[in-house]
């Protein structure tokens, strides 16, 4: 394709011209190959699931949505996208603000928060950084779902704490005002708590004064929230409305 003629100035020019065409042709082929590789890579990336999808692929989607919701609503109080001691401390502060620093609720919270935090770290903090990331939280609940006794004990202990915190009158029941106040300590708006209470107790707004649930009912609702895959289960709304 290239004729090198060295005895003629014209031939030399022609040779250079042909050589340039050859180089340009080679460069174009290379560029097209690169484009093809890039296009294939882009398609492959689009087809690949995200890291989160890979991490949580074995978790039922509805359970995962509830586990994420309680991670954000009840535990990640400072919105850092992870749970640490400061989140538990913020709950303690909210309890003091709502019920009073000298209240029984505050004494209960001060007594229970540190052991609950220590227990969660021991069971869920897989990378030992004193923080619980969402992936660690989901892994922890997967072990609970599979019947791991230590993990289930922690879930039960936290349930006992929540029930005692909400049950201000200590009569073994949670009524509407107690439920709304308890939800406020976790940042849930009263209108949301009102609607959730209606769904949980099957009570209309004007019947709220008569409605309540006892500890056995609360325990069942708690288990439904964490482990039921039935979207119609009443316990799905225990910590706010679940779509």
From TrEMBL:
InterPro entries: EF-hand-dom_pair, EF_Hand_1_Ca_BS, EF_hand_dom. One of its GO terms (molecular function) is calcium ion binding. Residues 154-189 form the EF-hand domain. Keywords: Calcium. The keyword Calcium applies. Pfam families: EF-hand_7. It comes from the Eukaryota. This is Calexcitin-1. It comes from Trichinella patagoniensis.
